[in-house]
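Q: My collaborator sent me two sequences in one message, no labels, and asked for predicted structures for both. Can we handle them in order? The first one she listed is below.
A: Yes, handling them in the order given. First sequence, followed by its structure tokens:
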Amino acid sequence: MAINTLAYAEKFTGELDKMYVQEAVTGFLTDNILRAKFVGAKTVIIPDVEMQGLADYDRDTGFIRGAITVAQQPFTMTRDRGRTLEIDNEDIDEIGVSSFAGQVLSEFVREHVVPETDAYTISKLSGVANTQGHLLQGGVVTTPYAAFLDLVSSVRNFVGYSEELVCFVHPSIYKAFQTSTEISKQIVPSDFKKGEINLKVGKIDGVALLPVTADRMYTAYDFLDGSTTGEEDGGFAPQTAAMAIYMLVMPKKAASLVEKSKRMRVFTPDKNLTKDAYKFDYRIYFDVFVKKSKKNSIWAWVAPSITFGTQPADTSKVAGSISGSLTSAATASDSSTVTYQWYQADDATGTNPVMIAGKTSASMVIPTTLTAGLYYYFVKATAGLATVMSSNVATVTVTVS
């Protein structure tokens, strides 16, 4: 019996779209694009309405004329991502292709598409907050309620109290919320609409708390192209200088997640010209935009950044008479306490790092029992709940006298 490729493509795409909206923490932002219009290949127009305020009414002349300006803001789409997946024909039979392919594609969307979309969206929103001077640093991370109130108050000061707010929360901060008796009692399960799905989320004073995994809560990312050497696996990774985001608060309708294209193509083995395999092409062309009138309504609390003032240096020693230490010194941008942990690796790039028990100071005494050979060490500095920075890898060369 022949497989209807088009029917399978429609089935997979529909089911994956539903799962995407449900799984993506930022999926609700797709609800804000009802009036968006594409003009050209990469440009989307989103209307932004500006109105003048009240004026005095004159009983002789009547109303003072005002204006409503509908600014058609153009935004350029930038995120065009995709991947081809293949399942060998011998790995599945015709009866099981729908079930097996569905499982594979679902995992692909859940493990790769959703995390990358969330990471890009939240990092771009934090970029808007940074441009507006709305990034907060410092504060006591183990008792984050004060910072939460500062963020909410700053947003409310701009949009008032009628708009629904959301708060993206780093898992470390969310844990602090849950373990605080005072704060946990204020978290109330409430309805939260995301597309056609109604969810229950915790809210404090009407602000939806949306916990986000740590890998999606950084201020900047590198998005790997999948073809350059070292980037074959694709996906994304936080940039070296990126700061972890503790919390980001904004109105639910402040940004629009626009998807010009999100589609799946399916090729059966008889249509696949290169392999005897089922072939699935997944492509998503999207971006997130904030209207000019909403840019002041986004605030974020970020973890401190770490700078190494002193890096561990390469050194040479003689077996049997080893002495000395590897030394580092790091500071946090908010002057918070920096802690250290030393590691030994397999090579100068830090491959396969192994934590060295008990080595938790800025300096580490070089083991005196080392025999002839090359040894590689580095230290990780930590500040706050989310910032971890690795030093350079130092090579200790041990020779025989």
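Q: And the one she listed second?
A: Here it is, processed independently of the first:
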Amino acid sequence: MAKQGIRLVFGGGRVGLMGLLADAVMAGGGEVIGVIPRHLEEVEVGHHAITELHVVDNMHLRKEMMFRMADAIAVLPGGLGTLDETFEMITWRQLELHDKPILIVDVAGFWQPFLKLVNHICDTGFASPTACELFATVTSVEELLPTIHALPEPRVTPFLDRL
């Protein structure tokens, strides 16, 4: 990301995978912007060795701020918070609030149960078959940036006032 001049917008913690990613982008000379809710800053240990750290009042503001600053959404393996954020970004795209690329990075099959669930929802008619086309899947981090660059430009202007 740093070599290609791509800014990282992330959840603002210095622990776990998000902390490692932020550290790697910073070490490569890249720009890193974190957004963390006030109540999680101590729990997740807010990452202060990055370009910018925004402390916001709640989780919704965190997701909204991260969304506004991002040009694309990459979903790495993660926990329940990652799952929540993923579903929200996909839902916002389904509602045509945005058309930013969403990529699920399915390293070692981590997201297979999620992908199976989404396909099940579409197959049973609880979502349109086109809902399964709201995101793309790659199997490695190395595929992420070339895939994003190969996707068409977003068609829809974000309706951020509707969030």
